[in-house]
Input
Amino acid sequence: MYLFGTSLFGQHIGITSGMVLFPFMFGIGMIFYNAKNYFGWLLAVGSLAAMIFGVIASTHFVLRTLTAYELLTILVLSFGGLGLLLSSLRRIETKPNESDGTPG
Output
């Protein structure tokens, strides 16, 4: 998998995911040795960002023809599930006398 690259003398020279994995491993090792090492954090976060960018850049979407019913079903279920997920993350407000267990 090529992330990005350049052309040199007519040949495409790309940066593979293996070339990004080595700085990531060194960065993680430096972080485990000393968590305050900024260079280790820079290597790890930069390599992780490059790997994520590479995965996104190499993704190809192919959509087949959908009927309106299929499209609406996909959208309703997707956004309904997202709504349920977000509603489960909300904080529930309680009344003061409900939380301490004393009768009202």
Remarks:
- Strands lie at 2-8, 11-16.
- The chain has a mean pLDDT of 80.
- Residues 77 and 83 are 10 Å apart (CA to CA).
